[in-house]
């Protein structure tokens, strides 16, 4: 049983049943022990926390869509028959928008299947999604989409080294006052840290001031407390080195932004204005200077209001996405390319540039955190198709 958010609930009663217990009618196992209400609630909370908040929201939304369809069609949602799930998939695949395009991509249907399976398991029922009928129906839908060319994958275009540097340089050249400088320093940090660290946008916005330390030999040590492939929070360190040019140096970009954050946290808007109006022109490395006294645990990347004031809350993933597009547009990039950019363009750009520069898959994985080289091949095929390709050795 789950609540509206998709989190498991504990059934009330003398025996407080923990999530995932077998329901009546299933094979008999050990008797359910009596638990104190606080203990049962704590177990439920731990089970709910076993999945990321975003995953729980996605599952809850997908489950609502399925149960609503079942109610309208007169089908039972829990437990659902495999035929019901197959019919639901076909109905979703046949749904079109006002412009005649398919409303749901195959990835969306796969998410919905995962949500259906999750809710069945949590309720003690076998999942209908593993049935051959459901799997073959999904396979047929994917083949049909591919044959008709509808809802193809639209991966984010990568930003390579030259792109990042050009965008950062233009952002700095366009500064007209202290408010512009606040945004420039933050956006330069997003671009250079995100690119050199191969961060996902969710990882970038989750960084706190205390996650970043300046190492006198390596540059920046950034502690990634949790990631998409590390949901249990074992953590890892990503090193962002000093570079020859100050304009492309990730540690310099971090320090310039950290100075703004420290001034804001200590003295608010007046302190930020004083800092930026008296700052020396950025004409040399500043990364060997004194580390700003930022607030431990405070978000590193912040939302910025139109008047230049910093928010106390972390920048959203959508904010990273918007900043990259806005800066690329200001740098004169083609509008058709700008719409292909987003938060993932920095991570995709790191992998693509590294492949083009001759880096091995193992070396790339040390920075990106990918668990298998197969995941990197997607970037190589789409954005660096001539690297290690025999077609370049044909002598044409």
Account of the 3D structure:
With 396 residues, the protein is mainly α. 49% of the residues lie in helices and 6% in strands. The chain contains 14 helices and five strands. The strands form two sheets. Strands 1-2-3 form a three-stranded antiparallel β-sheet, with no helix packed on it. A two-stranded antiparallel ribbon has the order 4-5. Strand 4 and strand 5 form a beta hairpin. Helix 3 packs parallel to helix 5, helix 7 packs antiparallel against helix 9 and helix 7 packs across helix 12. The longest helix has 28 residues. It is globular, with a radius of gyration of 25 Å. The N and C termini lie far apart (65 Å). 31% of the residues are buried.
What fraction, in percent, of the residue positions are helical? 40-55%
Multimeric state: single chain
Shape: globular
What pattern of helices and strands is seen along the backbone? HHHHHHHHEEEHEEHHHHH
Fraction of residues in β-strands: 5-15%
Largest sheet: 3 strands, antiparallel
How many separate helices? 14
- What is the averaged pLDDT score? 86
Strands, count: 5
Radius of gyration (Å): 25 Å
Strand order across the largest sheet:
1-2-3
* Terminal CA distance: 65 Å
Q: Which structural class do the helices and strands define?
A: mainly alpha
Q: Low-confidence spans: pLDDT under 50, at least 5 residues?
A: 7-26
